[in-house]
Amino acid sequence: MNRYLYLVRHGIAETESATRHDADRCLTEAGSQRMRRAAAGLKRLGVIPDAVLTSPLRRAEQTALILVETLAPHLQLETMVPLAPGHEPKDVLRGLGAYRHARAVMLVGHEPSLGQFASHLLTGSAAILSLEFKKGAVIAIAVATLPPHAAGTLEWFLTPKQLRAVARRGR
Q1: Residues contacting residue 11 through CB under 8 Å, at least 6 positions apart
Q2: Quick one: which of 36, 47, 113, 139 is 20 to 30 A from 162 by CA?
Q3: pLDDT digits (tens, 9 = 90+) for 38-47
């Protein structure tokens, strides 16, 4: 039975926070609205995570909360420090050990780390594939086990605009 990892880049955020700390940057109003519509597209695709893990940075947490509200309101959002910028794919993989029984895990983070992690999941190397996540983009990767011990399979990679179009089709 395949398991799924959904990697999500946070939505559109402020260029600078009031505190001037990058970790405190919030989603903009437009970023929140677009992420809600993208989340509706994920719901229409049948995405139901068993766990939603987020970087501790504010914009990622806000994005993850929108995803939980839309896709799995019964879930408690969980913070995973290795999803913050500057961590290696192996750090994220270690953190996935606690979710070995999950069918689908959603991870919300940042570029370029997400692209590197996706490359690692698909090829075994963070540097082989160049995958650029637009803000609000989502990739679905099927893996045999959690944490993965072998290369996964790319199921789909959708931009936020494509996800919003999927949501509109459902109206």
Answers
A1: 27, 31, 32, 34, 35, 38, 59, 62, 63, 66, 135, 136, 160
A2: 113
A3: 999 999 999 9
pLDDT in tens, 72-99: 999 999 999 999 999 999 999 999 999 9
- Residue 18 confidence (pLDDT): 81
Interior angle at CA 153, CA 5 and CA 65, nearest 5: 20
Q: Letter for the amino acid at 18?
A: A
How buried is 132 (Cβ within 10 angstroms: 0-12 exposed, 13-18 middle, 19+ buried)? exposed
Asked if residues 58 and 66 have their Cβ atoms less than 8 Å apart, the reply is: no
Q: Given this model, what pLDDT does residue 158 score?
A: 98
pLDDT tens, residue by residue, 115-154: 999 999 999 999 999 998 999 999 999 999 999 999 999 9
Q: Is 92 exposed, middle or buried (0-12, 13-18, 19+ CB in 10 A)?
A: buried
Contact 105, 49 (CB under 8 A): yes
Q: One-letter amino acid identity for 55?
A: S
Query: What's the whole-model pTM score?
Result: 0.96
